[in-house]
């Protein structure tokens, strides 16, 4: 009798925001980076991808992915690489144990949803590929560790490898040509330093900038300053950042975070033609953080920017009132502000900075450090293989 | 009988805009730079300082400077260094020839005026110190060459040393501790490549940024990328730029100009805390130049930015219609646009870029390469030593 069962597994996966940035590939096919990087995994209460992977001998046709309700093209080399790698690992298990169902031979049907609007302008590919890989690994019952799975996720989207862990996560660049040592590892779990918070100022950009994949290729090829970033600046920042996290030293964490963001965007601006992700609103957010720290008399906030104008501001729960108090008059009426947030309006921002932020920030996300992928019984695919209506 | 004559001499001096930027001092007292730089001297028809230097035994009190009608503080170390150096050179002449009047012992009275509004936000210190030094050198009848005088002007304001020459001018950083080899020399006179034009888009900045003197000190002290700029990027750019000028190769001139401006501003943004001179209007000007070159099918325009948001756009007279045609719809109604400029509206700019420029540019300056300081009989001080009413 043939196996007509629909096999299913679900996972969530988090977004991560780097404090030492990934920018530059030494191998574009394998997504091998020119430098190591380090990130904070953000809480899935606020930002997460939920993915159900399923397979069945009854499925006809090719593998498929439904992403936020829309069929998604999975023919790209990166997605294909993830499927291929995971199937190979399953096939090895099946070869070793004949009693296992031959899931590796069945078509995959995957359904994935984010709990945050695309309009937030957050790079969702990290959470997306991490969830995709973890869900299929769960479906296939692979024994691989998160670090081993991160090698697969990395081939989907570089920074996705860091979303296989919660807390504070390093992506070690490695030096092998096949990328087998270019993977994520845990610097510290969220429980080591649980009071880390993030306020994301979502800035409406007139137009989407250069994609990060093509942007980083251009930087590697044309920036005269890039070499010193990857050879000198980043290795120093990685060491400083790991120390800062291990010692829960926020002042050091903040300084390295801000310097590394500046360094990354400087190499973008040194690209030819130059790449600008930050705009005048982003720069006003930098000035606001500087003013908050100056008026607080100590470092209580740190800015960082990915490949876009949004400001991510890290701070500790104990300084929430000071940091949120400075921004509340400007953004508390936008989507995403959590009512009841403790605020203390001791910090006074310059008029021009305040009005630039007030006019330029369209919504906020208030979150903090969080856990890695979580297996869940919430399925986006029903037992009969059909997508769950939501 | 005592000498009661008022001795006078006048000169004009030009503004220069660097195409390989000066940013960083290795000796702040002597204004010795961390790298060589290269500039285009702009026409004095549009931008110049006129300075009359005078001295007389009948003058009482200290040296004085009237700048644009206002008494100016000359007690600063830099101005004092210029006065001291020039007096020493005069004193040496007087010691060698007893028949010379002892001008070095008389108080100096100096009057200086710019022919452009301070509101233009152009660094006037280069033209100002070049005119000051040249006027006193004329007054003292010093035999020093422009290159020798550039050593004096450099001590007033680094980039002033390049305004002692017309045309295309290099400031060689030198390596001596006393700065005696850190001086300007002529790469090519204006007549070598007379068709070079400059369109300056004057951008209204909300607030003056960090001064260049303190800014460059901070960059040297804190930017992790700066070392590679001065050790690798600038030496390469200097060599490429000199070749480009010698061969009148505008495409190469333009690429190095744009890359070097980007590199300079990148090291500013990599300073901690970061220094931003450019704003969204500046970046729109960059995108406009890129669009002009792309649509022209060849490089006809080059942007560069000093320590402020103004865009300086270099182009050749033969491409005036194309370059000016792209900007005319946006800025032809502002102060400074020269009616009758040949324009050809073949270039179409993106809506967002066009509106950002139209809203953000408050005036323009249309000029070109020009000559160095010119001795003149136009005096800002009358024969009796009083300032001329104008």
Automatic annotation (TrEMBL), chains A, B:
Question: From its record, what is one biological process in GO terms?
Answer: isopentenyl diphosphate biosynthetic process, mevalonate pathway
Question: Per the database record, which ranges form the Diphosphomevalonate decarboxylase-like N-terminal domain?
Answer: 13-183
What Pfam families does the database record attribute to this sequence?
Answer: MDD_C, MVD-like_N
Question: What EC number(s) would the UniProt record show?
Answer: 4.1.1.33
The pathway noted for it is: Isoprenoid biosynthesis; isopentenyl diphosphate biosynthesis via mevalonate pathway; isopentenyl diphosphate from (R)-mevalonate: step 3/3
Its domain of life? Eukaryota
Ordered alphabetically, the record's keywords are: ATP-binding, Lipid biosynthesis, Lipid metabolism, Lyase, Nucleotide-binding, Steroid biosynthesis, Steroid metabolism, Sterol biosynthesis, Sterol metabolism
GO terms for cellular component: cytosol
Keyword Hydrolase present in the record's keywords: the answer is no
Domain Mvd1 C-terminal per the UniProt entry, residue ranges: 198-375
Which GO terms of the molecular function aspect are on file?
Answer: ATP binding; diphosphomevalonate decarboxylase activity
Instruction: Give the SUPFAM superfamilies listed for this entry.
Output: GHMP Kinase, C-terminal domain (SSF55060), Ribosomal protein S5 domain 2-like (SSF54211)
| Catalytic reaction equation(s) | (R)-5-diphosphomevalonate + ATP = isopentenyl diphosphate + ADP + phosphate + CO2
Main EC class of this protein?
Answer: lyase
Family under the similarity heading = Belongs to the diphosphomevalonate decarboxylase family.
NCBIfam families named among the record's database cross-references = mevDPdecarb
User: What is this protein's name?
Assistant: Diphosphomevalonate decarboxylase
Tell me the lineage of the source organism. Answer: Eukaryota, Fungi, Dikarya, Ascomycota, Pezizomycotina
């Amino acid at each position: 009798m043939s196996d007509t069962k629909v096999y299913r597994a679900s996972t969530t996966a988090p977004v991560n925001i780097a404090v030492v940035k990934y920018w530059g590939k030494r191998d574009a096919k394998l997504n091998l980076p020119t430098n190591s990087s380090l990130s904070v995994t953000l809480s899935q209460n606020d930002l997460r991808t939920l993915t159900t992977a399923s397979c069945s001998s009854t499925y006809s046709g090719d593998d498929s992915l439904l992403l936020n309700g829309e069929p998604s093209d999975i023919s790209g080399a990166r997605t294909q690489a993830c499927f291929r790698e995971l199937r190979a690992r399953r096939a090895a298990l099946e070869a070793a144990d004949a009693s296992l169902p031959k899931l590796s031979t069945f078509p995959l049907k995957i359904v994935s949803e984010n709990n945050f609007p695309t309009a937030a302008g957050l790079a969702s590919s990290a959470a997306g590929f991490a969830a995709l890989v973890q869900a299929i690994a769960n479906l296939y019952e692979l024994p691989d560790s998160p670090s081993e799975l991160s090698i697969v996720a990395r081939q989907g989207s570089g920074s996705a490898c860091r979303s296989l862990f919660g807390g504070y996560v390093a992506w070690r660049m490695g030096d092998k040509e096949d990328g087998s040592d270019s993977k994520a590892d845990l610097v510290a779990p969220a429980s080591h330093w649980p009071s880390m918070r993030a306020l994301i100022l979502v800035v409406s950009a007139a137009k989407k900038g250069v994609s990060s994949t093509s942007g980083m290729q251009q930087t590697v090829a044309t920036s005269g300053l890039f070499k010193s970033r990857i050879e000198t600046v980043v290795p120093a920042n990685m060491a400083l950042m790991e120390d800062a996290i291990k010692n829960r030293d926020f002042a050091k964490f903040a300084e390295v975070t801000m310097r590394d963001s500046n360094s990354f965007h400087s190499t973008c601006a040194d690209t030819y033609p130059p790449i600008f992700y930050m705009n005048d609103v982003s720069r006003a957010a930098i000035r606001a953080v500087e003013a908050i720290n100056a008026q607080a008399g100590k470092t209580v906030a740190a800015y960082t920017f990915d490949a876009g104008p949004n400001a991510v501001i890290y701070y500790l729960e104990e300084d929430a009132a000071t940091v949120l108090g400075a921004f509340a008059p400007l953004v508390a009426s936008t989507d995403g502000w959590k009512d009841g947030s403790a605020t203390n309006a001791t910090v006074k921002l310059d008029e021009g900075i305040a009005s630039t932020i007030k006019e330029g920030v369209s919504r906020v996300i208030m979150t903090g450090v969080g856990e890695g992928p979580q297996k869940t019984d919430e399925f986006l695919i029903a037992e009969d293989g059909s997508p769950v209506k939501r």
